[in-house]
């Protein structure tokens, strides 16, 4: 009964380092998304995917890359971390079909020094 | 540009009080409005609203949508300390199949319930 699993839960990086945030879901959901949450700003969409091999940009895509090689996994890559990317990152998935809610992972808290 | 605005941004009440949280939206193509509760970790789904005037209810929580005035409210009656959380409102656009991965969130309302 795992649902949406994100790793790591916490990470500290230095400016300029790269890393990949992992997201996996075991519900066979076609749609997956990445959001970042900053104080007073709610959740903002970074990238999303409607199926394996298909991705698109959200509201704040700059500095992030994604790929979707399988239905289960949707990793988020920071190529050169910047302090402005300090945030809590949430991955979400939902089923195909109308009026299906998104299910969220527990988040990754990322600090860039 | 789609926009969702929540009010108040924070609210402090005592156990037993009733609270009303507000969510207004401006969207190009509206499909549904969702409410989530966020405690320490992941937002958890509360309600999805697609039709005006139809109340959704779960225990002490209820919500309703007004598509003419472009807003929704979330009511919590007889509040408990366990209701303390951030309540998030989000809208899902109706822009074809590729929009189904997208939600636009409001800033959230931080609710604190004191014993």
Q: What can you tell me about this protein's structure?
A:
- The complex is a heterodimer of chains A (113) and B (115).
- The mean pLDDT of chain A is 93.
- Helices cover 0% and strands 50% of the residues of chain A.
- Chain A has no helices and 11 strands.
- Chain A is mainly beta and 113 residues long.
- In chain A, the strands form 2 sheets. In chain A, strands 2, 4, 5, 6, 9, 10 and 11 form a 7-stranded mixed sheet that branches.
- With 115 residues, chain B is mainly β.
- Chain B is built from no helices and 11 strands.
- In chain B, strands 2, 4, 5, 9, 10 and 11 form a 6-stranded mixed sheet that branches.
- Chain B is globular and about 40 Å long.
- Chain B starts with a strand and ends with a strand.
Q: Give the fraction of residues assigned to helices of chain B.
A: under 10%
Low-confidence stretches of chain B: none
Structure summary, number of beta strands of chain B: 11
Total strands of chain A: 11
Shape of chain B: globular
Largest sheet geometry of chain A: 7 strands, mixed
The arrangement of helices and strands of chain B along the chain is EEEEEEEEEEE
* Gyration radius of chain A, rounded: 13 Å
N-to-C SSE string of chain A, H for helix and E for strand: EEEEEEEEEEE
Total of helices of chain B: 0
């Amino acid at each position: 009964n795992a649902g949406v699993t994100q790793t790591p839960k916490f990470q500290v990086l230095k400016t300029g380092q790269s890393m990949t945030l992992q997201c996996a879901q075991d519900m066979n959901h076609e749609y997956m998304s990445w959001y970042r949450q900053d104080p007073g700003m709610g959740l903002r969409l970074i990238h999303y995917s409607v199926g394996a091999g298909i991705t698109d940009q959200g509201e704040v895509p700059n500095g992030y890359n994604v790929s979707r090689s399988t239905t289960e996994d949707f990793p988020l890559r920071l190529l050169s971390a910047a302090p402005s990317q300090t945030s809590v990152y949430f991955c979400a998935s939902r089923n195909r079909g109308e009026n299906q809610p998104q299910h969220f992972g527990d988040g990754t808290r990322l600090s860039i020094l | 540009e789609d926009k969702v605005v929540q009010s108040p941004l924070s609210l402090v009440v005592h156990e037993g009080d009733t609270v009303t949280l507000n969510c207004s939206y401006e969207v190009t193509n509206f499909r549904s409005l969702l409410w989530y509760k966020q405690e320490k970790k992941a937002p958890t789904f509360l309600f999805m609203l697609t039709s005006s005037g139809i109340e959704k209810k779960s225990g002490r929580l209820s919500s309703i949508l007004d598509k003419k005035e472009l807003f929704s409210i979330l009511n919590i009656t007889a509040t408990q300390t366990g209701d303390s959380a951030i309540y998030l409102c989000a809208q899902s656009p109706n822009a074809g199949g590729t929009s189904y991965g997208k939600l636009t969130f409001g800033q959230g309302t931080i609710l604190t319930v004191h014993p």
